[in-house]
């Protein structure tokens, strides 16, 4: 299921970004949100950035991971995102998420 979810949402990012944004507003499944977040990063659209920022506060670590990876896919990381990722790198309760946050910052 994971690979097909990821492929579907990555394809939507290329073919129908409006549909991807629409789905991102209503989807609740943590697995789907994870892949949606990664795909949103491919859009380089401020609306996508807002959604990714919101997902950084999700209660499921896997969704926060997807949001971090999505933000890491942006061509340029917005200042507020950089600051928020710094906070996550220092304070997230999940060590893997902190490590991913540091990695995104290193690549920014």
Please name the CATH topology.
Answer: Leucine-rich Repeat Variant
Counted up, domains total 1
Count every beta strand, where a strand is a DSSP E run of 2 or more residues. 0
* C-alpha-based Rg, rounded: 13 Å
Per CATH, the superfamily is Leucine-rich Repeat Variant
What is the overall pLDDT average?
Answer: 93
Secondary structure tally, helices? 7
Order of helices and strands: HHHHHHH
Uncertain runs with pLDDT below 50, 5 residues or more? none
CATH architecture name: Alpha Horseshoe
Q: Shape from CA axes?
A: globular
Give the end-to-end Cα distance, rounded to a whole number of Å. 31 Å
The CATH C-level name is Mainly Alpha
Structural class: mainly alpha
Reported for the largest beta sheet, the result is: none
Describe the protein's topology:
Layout: H1 2-15, H2 17-26, H3 30-40, H4 46-55, H5 61-72, H6 79-91, H7 95-107
Which labels suit this protein?
single chain, 108 residues, mainly alpha, Leucine-rich Repeat Variant, globular
């Amino acid at each position: 299921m994971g690979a097909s979810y990821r492929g579907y949402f990555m394809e939507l990012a290329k073919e129908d970004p409006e549909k991807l944004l629409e789905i991102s507003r209503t989807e609740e499944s943590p697995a789907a949100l994870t892949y949606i977040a990664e795909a949103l990063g491919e859009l380089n659209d401020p609306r996508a950035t807002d959604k990714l920022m919101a997902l950084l506060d999700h209660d499921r670590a896997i969704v926060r991971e997807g949001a971090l990876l999505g933000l890491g896919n942006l061509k340029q990381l917005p200042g507020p995102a950089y600051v928020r990722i710094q906070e996550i790198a220092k304070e997230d309760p999940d060590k893997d998420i902190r490590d991913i946050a540091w990695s995104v910052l290193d690549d920014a």
